[in-house]
Design goal:
about 160 residues, alpha+beta, Alpha-Beta Plaits, four-stranded antiparallel beta sheet, 4 strands, binds adenosine-3',5'-cyclic-monophosphate
Length: about 160
């Protein structure tokens, strides 16, 4: 286990359904640190890079249209084992299969309109973070609750 960063996209359906604040709040209350946060429109280049592995799938055109239907919010979250911890909060891809209590379990009934994207590995997180953020948009700071979020032997690494 180590301290790492992950990328979250709060997708157009969440923005349209007024879920932005509630979603950010779930990550905050878990103890993840917000390291970057902004709104943006995702252009064609970023769509083709971010969903490169889905470009031949039958749902790709619909996915592109959906992701460009409204602005999104992108976030970088930091913490111990942040990639896996975040994916537990988010739940599996298809909202109708996600456990109640997860973001998708509570807010999504869809395989496409699934509210958020979360990086699936630390390696992909690194690429995804720099796809959406410049270095000067990422903030390293010590939060005053750090010593209450983590035990002594969990604060390094
Ligand atoms: P995300 O976690 O961003 O990764 C790929 C995205 O493609 C996924 O969330 C969904 O928005 C979308 N997606 C995955 N599977 C399907 C599917 N079967 N039909 C439509 N969209 C899908």
């Amino acid at each position: 286990m180590k301290h790492e960063k992950t990328l979250i996209i709060i997708k157009p359906d969440a923005m349209q359904r007024n879920l932005l604040g509630g979603i950010i709040s779930r990550f905050e209350r878990k103890g993840l640190r917000i390291t970057g946060l902004k709104m943006m429109a995702i252009d064609d280049l970023k769509i083709s890079e971010h969903y490169e592995h889905h470009k031949d799938k039958p749902f790709f055109d619909g996915l592109k249209k959906y992701m460009q239907s409204a602005p999104v919010a992108v976030m970088v979250l930091s913490g111990l084992n942040a990639v896996a911890a975040t994916r537990l909060i988010v739940g599996p891809t298809k909202g109708y299969e996600a456990d109640a209590g997860s973001i998708r379990g509570d807010f999504s009934m869809s395989g496409q309109c699934n509210i958020v994207h979360a990086s699936d590995s630390a390696e992909n997180a690194e690429k995804e973070i720099y796809r959406f953020f410049n270095e000067d948009e990422l903030f390293e700071y010590k939060k005053i609750d750090f010593e209450f979020i983590y035990g002594e032997d969990e604060r390094e690494g």
